[in-house]
Amino acid sequence: MQLHVDDRGHGSRTALLVHGLTGSSESWHRVVPLLVAHGYRVLAVDLPGHGRSPRDHALTIPRAARAVAASVAGTCGTAPDVAIGHSLGGLVLAAAVELGVLHPRVTVSVDAPAGTRGGWDRDETAAEYAEERRGRTVEGLRATRPAYGEQDRVVEARAARRFDPDTAAALAAGPGCSFPPPPGSIVVRADPSAYVDDDRAAGYRDRGVDVRSIPGAAHTVWYSHFDAFVAALPEVFGPS
């Protein structure tokens, strides 16, 4: 599957960005210009059923991982200098690394789950995602996401309109999977986090994962704590 890739910048380094569930490549609207300014060519991908990418009603995490790798292969091969995945996107990146279809020099997972349970009722889940999508308007997000900036809400509301509940439901109803962050990678988590609690963070550290916490951050960490997010990743935003 060929995914939509927003390609910005002409630097000598390449950064791959993968958004979370219900988001889009535009979710990185504050991160992309900074990466470009730091000398990166930035490839921000729309996952299947999100943004301008095709729907996939047989979606699994491995299918998503292979689609991301295939969609950027012509630009950066299988080894981008940096790959950052948020939430679902972090899980997809971890799968791509474990499956051997991507080999980033630096892999960053932002507040991401380590796997999926699978086995949810497909029709019920699709209806729940459709209901959530209806509530993700600018006005709705203003009430439920006070930590977001106004442009963040505009971007997320636009992403919600393009989000396909049936693709997400296929993923939830399919087989469960486990793809924790690979050893040597970096995890940036909100603290507290719904996905990376203290016990899980300790387990990651035991596996050679560098876990960095941003107290009080929202799940989409850079929306609420942009400067702290940038400061947490000197390997990415520092000099080449």
Automatic annotation (TrEMBL):
<dbReference type="Pfam" id="PF12697">
    <property type="entry name" value="Abhydrolase_6"/>
</dbReference>
<dbReference type="InterPro" id="IPR000639">
    <property type="entry name" value="Epox_hydrolase-like"/>
</dbReference>
<dbReference type="InterPro" id="IPR029058">
    <property type="entry name" value="AB_hydrolase_fold"/>
</dbReference>
<keyword id="KW-0378">Hydrolase</keyword>
<feature type="domain" description="AB hydrolase-1">
    <location>
        <begin position="16"/>
        <end position="232"/>
    </location>
</feature>
<protein>
    <submittedName>
        <fullName>Alpha/beta fold hydrolase</fullName>
    </submittedName>
</protein>
<dbReference type="InterPro" id="IPR000073">
    <property type="entry name" value="AB_hydrolase_1"/>
</dbReference>
<dbReference type="GO" id="GO:0016787">
    <property type="term" value="F:hydrolase activity"/>
</dbReference>
<dbReference type="InterPro" id="IPR050266">
    <property type="entry name" value="AB_hydrolase_sf"/>
</dbReference>
